[in-house]
Every structure is written in structure tokens, then in C-alpha cells.
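Chapter review: from sequence to fold.
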Amino acid sequence: MSGLFAGRLLLSACAAASLMVSSVAASNSAEPVSEALPMHRAPHAPAPSPLPAPQFVGDPQSRLLRNYGGTPIDVTTYHYDLNRTGWNSTETDLTPATVASAKFGLLATLNVDGNVLAQPLLVSGFKMPDGSIHDVLIVATGHDTVYAFDAQTYAILWQVSLGTSQNSNDVGCGDVQPEYGITSTPIIVRKSVKSATLFVVAATEPSRNQFVTQLHALDLGTGIDTMTPAVVAPSATLNDGSKVNFDPQNQWNRASLAFSQGSLYMGIGSHCDNNADGITGWLLRYNTKLKLEHAFHTIETHGGYELSSIWMTGYAPSIDVDGNVYVVTGNGDFTRRQMDWGESVLKLSPLLDKVVSHFTVFDYGNLNNGDTDFGSGGVMLIPTVTGQVAPPMAVAMGKASILYLLSQNDLGGLRKNDAGALQSQYGGGGGLWGGPAYYDGPSGPTVFTQTGGDVLRAWSVNSGSSPSLTNTVSGTSSAGYGGSLPITSSNGSTANTGVVWLIDRANEPFSIEAYDATNLGPPIFSAQIGLWSNAGNGNPFLTAMEANGRVYGPGYKVVQVFGLTP
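The C-alpha cell string follows.
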């Protein structure tokens, strides 16, 4: 099931609109579990939420008036940087102490028109066409609408529709209901205080059963297309002379967009593994004029299991200092020397014209047979630190819950018992639909993961001559099906400033949780963020975003904004 949004997840039902939040923390302790969760079936109906009825914090007239104490930043890409660390290292106001205080809670509810599967983005101090200066928050929805909010007052600056979204029933895949529209996190390329372009992919259905996917370049000041959108339609000739084409009904762009050195990268996965013997995974490279420069395909051998999708549950491709691009593929054929790249971490050249290195799970056949995609998770590049002896490292994990530590220099290939990895170990729980996060604090470099049914885990990074990851501390609150996509914030490596944020889907309504990044333990804050659009079926795999003293929790037809009152 290599291209599925959630391993055949079905989003849960959403009722309503304006949700509110409490500052009361919930501990909800649970022991880690070792048994595997179902790979592609929705879990049992969730238990009632343990959280109290939501409520706003502070006075309505002054709730949004608190000024940020640090220097505002831009968040223009998925998980902040090209390593995909998920670490905002510039946060001055939100610390474990302030987040746990009575002044932290729900500040605003942003009502939108569809599922918010893409991470919100932010540009600070942007000069609009009328000369006014705004911090601009971008929210993209599954209804193919893009919203620009003022990130202080949350007034709508503009909103645009990019077409009619694809009806889930017409697509023939119920992973997301009721529609497929914008599902990957866009990219913002900022050129100056008043010039920026938002690149976004929209799946549309202009007329019944006509499916079109387009790449747009929107002016950040107006939302208007700056050029004619590009229709996503790559094709390739395989070794046997047969053709393989992008299938706009049975394939979609779930992996978030990436941008480096003037190139835009787009990963393509499948819907419900439909047309599995006639499609391939794609990694596409466009220039800023929306011209397709290169289309890398993951399957070269015609027939069989032609998937090897690049979906990564919305995680974006990672890019190293030399511009090499890293992705993980899902279920699909792997054939030595035939360029069939199923169940693999791939390191591609910046031009995407060759696979520089790969790591393929030795047990890839059983992963395929058990629908246990490696590609349900993304790959994070671990930043190098002063005095590091180990090679530059990367970490990846999928549905099998095996945590792999890899060398960026040589990912390790296909070797018996995964001997090419620097380390492989059980990561807890029942599989990961998402990816890790990173924080370099007083205890040193740390990787955070949370798998299905398991608690949040912190892994210390040994970057010496024997590189390794060691689980040091853990949280107490169990994740829902598929785990979570944590992020972190701190004031650099300053003690007592690190916070881990995640969206917990163990119960409905789902919640946002915050943890002390050094100690973990029980959440220091937990609050409802909303229900979902598929009644009682599966989970949406989402990431929060934190910047400039505020935290954004996306949901169905809503984004909840948390922060400190004056």
C-alpha cells in the first residue's frame, strides 16, 4: 500500500466549527505496547476524550494583543528546514514553564472550508501590495482553497480557490473523505520584504470523472497565479520500451514539497494501491517557471508490483548540504541492477538523474506481503555537531517500527540482516506513519519518535566512533493509530526552554500535546483540537506548527491557535 495517505486510513467524523481549549493538562498514562497494530485497517471506535470541555484562555478583548518577545521568523517549508528536523530553535516565549501556566491556551479558532492536511506556513513582516505590513499565515485545504490570514489578528487577507476538488467516491479511494484537493504542504520562496511566491499542488476534478493535478505559483501578496499553472503529467519509457504515465485518478502528491538551489521537488504516491501494475512512484523536479526539468521514476520493470510510491505520510523530501535529495519508498518491487526501488531510502543527485546511494530493507519481500510499507515514514537528516566523529547521519522508520540509523555518505545498500545500516532496532509500538523530530538541548542531540499505540520516545544521538541512538526518556500518553509527527521549539540550546509538540489521535476529539523536551513524562499541556471528516474510521496524520510564540493545530475545517495571553 505504498501510496496510501494513512495505510488505508479513513478520517474520522467532524462535526463542527468553533472549538475551544482548556489549559488543563492530561496525563493519560499508558505503558508502551509491543504488538503490531493493523497495517491498513481503521482502529476500533475511539473511547471518549479524557479532556475537559474546551474553553478559550484570557480576555476576549486582549487575547491576541501580546507581542512576541523574540525576533519573528518565517516558516516557509515543512518542518522548518531541509533536514526536516521539525526544530524551531529561535523560540523565546514558549517554554515548559510558560506552556504549563494558566496564561497559555486557545487564542483563536480559524474556520476554513475543508480538511487541513498541509502544515500551515508563515511569513513575518511581509509588505502587502497596499503597503501594509503583516505576518502572513498560509492555510491550504482539501477543498482546494488557500487562505492568507494576518497572524496577529487572524483577519483574512485573501483567499483563493484553485478549482473543484476531486470527489473521493469518484477517485475510488476512501482514505480521505469527502474530497481530495491540496494535501501536501506547499513551499514559499521569499525574495524580499514584499516579494514571495507560494508553490502549491492542487488535485482537481473540473468535470465528473475528469481528474487533473496542477502545480501553481501564487503571489503571496494577492493569491493570484503569477503564471499559467503546470499540469502534472510525467511519463517515462521503461527498459522494455513500454510507457508509464502519471495517473491523475489513482495517484496524488501527498509528500510535502521541497525547494533547493532553484529546484522544486514533488513526490507522487498512489490512491489505495489502485492500478498497482501500471504505475510507478515519481520524484519530480520543476524550476521556478513551473517547467518540469526531470522525472525520476521508481519502477523500471514493467508489470508486477509497480508502486514504490513516495508518499511518506506528508513528510517532505530531505536535502543535504550538497543538494542531494532523500526520500523513502513504500511497497513495490526491488530488483538488483534493474532500478526497481521498492522499500528503500534513496539518495538522489540534485538533478534526480541518478541514485547516488540507497538503503533497502533486507526483508523487503515480507514488507510487501504484509503491506508494511517502509515509505509510510520520512527520512530526517541529523545535523552534524562540533567534534562529530561519525559520518553525517540520517534516521528513518516505517510501519515495521524498526528505527534505522544510516550514514548519509553511504546509505548501506541491500545487505543481509540490514548490516548496511549503522544501527537498527525496534522503535516501539505498532508502526510509524510520519517521521521523527530533533532537538539539541542541554542533554545533547536528541531524536523524537512516536509510533502507533506507543508513547513519545527520546533517543540520544551518539555521534562518536560507534554511532547509535539510545532511548533515554519517554512520555506517558499513548499515540493513536500510526503514531504522530512531533516538532520541537526552544531558545537554542538554553536549558529549560525545549518543548515537544504533537497531535495526539488516540481519542476523539483529537488533541494537541506539549512535553518538556528534556524530561518528557506526562504532557505539560493538552487540549482538544477537533473531530474529523470520516465518521469513526482511521486517523488523519498531521503535524503542528510553532512560530513566534504561537502554535497551530490543523483539523477538519479548522485551525486552532494556541499561545500566551498578555
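Two observations follow directly from the output. Helices lie at 96-99, 168-171, 364-369. The chain is about 0% helix and 40% strand.
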